[in-house]
Specification:
Elements lengths: L3 E6 L3 H13 L2 E6 L2 H10 L4 E5 L1 E2 L2 E2 L2 H4 L8 E5 L4 H9 L4 E4 L4 H30 L2 E2 L2 E2 L3 H13 L6 E4 L6 H10 L8 E5 L8 H6 L16 H4 L4 E5 L6 H13 L1 E3 L6 E3 L3 E6 L3 H6 L5 H7 L2 E4 L9 H17 L4 E2 L1 H9 L5 H15 L3 E2 L30 H15 L4 H8 L3 H17 L1
Parallel strand pairs: 1-2, 1-3, 3-6, 6-7, 10-15, 10-16, 11-12, 12-15, 17-18
Antiparallel strand pairs: 4-5, 8-9, 13-14
The protein binds adenosine-5'-triphosphate and magnesium ion.
């Protein structure tokens, strides 16, 4: 393996020397700089695999280095004499791997450096893998060869080997969880657990103990001690789904756990160290959730170090056909059948709007396959919008919305109107709305509570 290089930037010569020694001991070739200017000059000569930056330097703020266009900052860690939450958040927002306070905690520094070397090894492995799979129009379990998806594959390949927190955004059914699993399986954590938690589906009273665990007798029903999801995911990846649905007070606790890398079980005071990489997801716009006050901004910065936007299926061109062939082939294997698509059916697949994205497509394929003995015809598929034969169960009522209405109000109106149209069939309503049944129940509980108060 090639030797990795580090650059230590600090104007305190003693501190710098001792840091350089520590980093050298971990097998890095170390250069030193005492100012932003010197660091720039050194990086221009040769990039470094990791830069350790003091925040306050004689000629400026160390973070300026992270801002430099083209400065090959593969990874950097911020070191501060006085840790303020603001500067830490700012550093993470700019993509710092971590921030350390003086005096530097040695084990933490070692673990950061270990990540850097493992990441370099994995990057090489993933790069070769990427080349091979791309030819086949897939990336791990992800199918599709559209440009939009190729860009997603690139992002996954880049971020998977790092320790960065990833936020996967996209409409319902676009494959956010599958992306999270792919990131895990291409990371150094792949041999350790992948634990998925749907923040919108756990009752607010239980979610704290579900995440952090509890001691026996800590609340009614806690008849034995239990590990939370964080402990279960130790060494692996924790997937936090629907993060905008998490109760606010829990967001505070979650932030604390992420900062401290330790959990405290409900009913205990002991902090248990956990080593977890967090990948989170949402099908809502998290910035709007912040504006609406349902998501803490500092938590969003923590989780959103590296965003990945999954395009809706209707923006993936022919991927719909590639996916349909893939799903049908899988069904043929499972059922030992030999069904196939007619050209007309494939054409119709391309015309449909797919509000439920890949999940909806998979369901439509399965249904069509069941309804057909051999060749799937266009008639076996739903009818595109605007054509006459309306699907009987589809809601056809219009909703009038005035400009100036808030998104959450529109959402509420839409959910209630859809339910009414479907005679209260929640399962069907959730499908039509493209949200999970659990989310629908949660929303209704909120509206119910509001109605009871009002
Ligand atoms: N690119 C893809 N290739 C193959 N299968 C896919 C792809 N994207 C999604 N799927 C499949 O579609 C289904 C939905 O994917 P997933 O659960 O990851 O979506 P999601 O974005 O998390 O949805 P939601 O917002 O409703 O939770 C799964 O069965 C998944 O395996
Ligand atoms: Mg999901």
């Amino acid at each position: 393996m090639t030797t990795l290089s580090a650059l230590v930037v600090d104007d305190d010569a003693d501190f710098r020397e001792s840091m350089a020694l520590l980093v050298e001991r971990e097998g890095f070739v170390v250069r030193q700089a005492d100012s932003v200017g010197t660091a720039r000059a050194l990086l221009a000569k040769a990039p470094a695999d990791i830069v350790l930056i003091d925040l306050s330097l004689p000629d400026g703020d160390g973070l300026e280095l992270a801002r430099d266009e083209g400065a090959a900052l593969a990874a950097f860690v911020v070191i501060t004499g006085n840790a303020s939450v603001d500067s830490a958040v700012d550093a993470l927002r700019r993509g710092a791997l971590d921030y350390l306070t003086k005096p530097v905690d040695q084990p933490r520094l070692q673990s950061v450096l270990a990540h850097v070397s493992r990441a370099a090894a994995l990057r090489a492995e993933v790069a070769s893998l990427r080349g091979e799979l791309r030819e086949l129009g897939r990336f791990g379990p992800l199918i599709g060869r559209s440009k939009a998806m190729q860009e997603v594959y690139d992002l996954i390949a880049r971020v998977a080997p790092t320790e960065a927190s990833v936020l996967v955004l996209g409409e319902s059914g676009t494959g956010k969880e599958l992306v999270a699993e792919t990131i895990h399986s291409q990371s150094r954590r792949k041999a350790r657990p992948f634990v998925a938690v749907n923040c919108g589906a756990i009752s607010p009273t239980l979610i704290e103990s579900e995440l952090f665990g509890h001691e026996r007798g800590s609340f009614t029903g806690a008849d034995r001690r239990r590990q939370g999801f964080f402990e279960q995911a130790d060494g692996g990846t924790l997937f936090l789904d629907e993060i905008t649905e998490m109760p606010l007070e829990l967001q505070v606790k979650l932030l604390r756990v992420l900062e401290a890398r330790a959990v405290t079980r409900v009913g205990s005071t002991e902090a248990i160290p956990v080593d977890v990489r967090v990948v989170s997801a949402s099908n809502r716009n998290p910035k709007q959730a912040v504006e609406a006050g349902s998501l803490r901004e500092d938590l969003l910065y923590r989780l959103n170090v590296f965003p990945i936007h999954l395009p809706p299926l209707r923006e993936r061109g022919d991927d719909v056909v590639v996916l349909a062939e893939h799903f049908l082939a899988a069904l043929n294997r499972r059922e030992a059948t030999d069904k196939r698509w007619s050209d007309a059916a494939l054409l119709r697949l391309r015309e449909l709007p797919w509000p439920g994205n890949v999940r909806e497509l998979r369901n439509v394929v399965e249904r069509a396959a069941i309804m057909t003995d051999h060749v799937i015809a266009a008639e076996d598929l739903p009818v595109p919008e605007g054509e006459t034969a309306a699907r009987p169960a589809e809601p056809d009522g219009a909703l009038r919305v005035n400009v100036g209405t808030s998104i959450s109000e529109v959402e509420r109106e839409l959910i209630l109107a859809t339910l009414e149209q479907l005679a209260g069939d929640k399962k069907r309503a959730a499908e039509v709305l493209g949200i999970s049944l659990k989310t629908l129940y949660n929303r209704l509980a909120v509206y119910g509570a509001a109605a009871a108060r009002g």
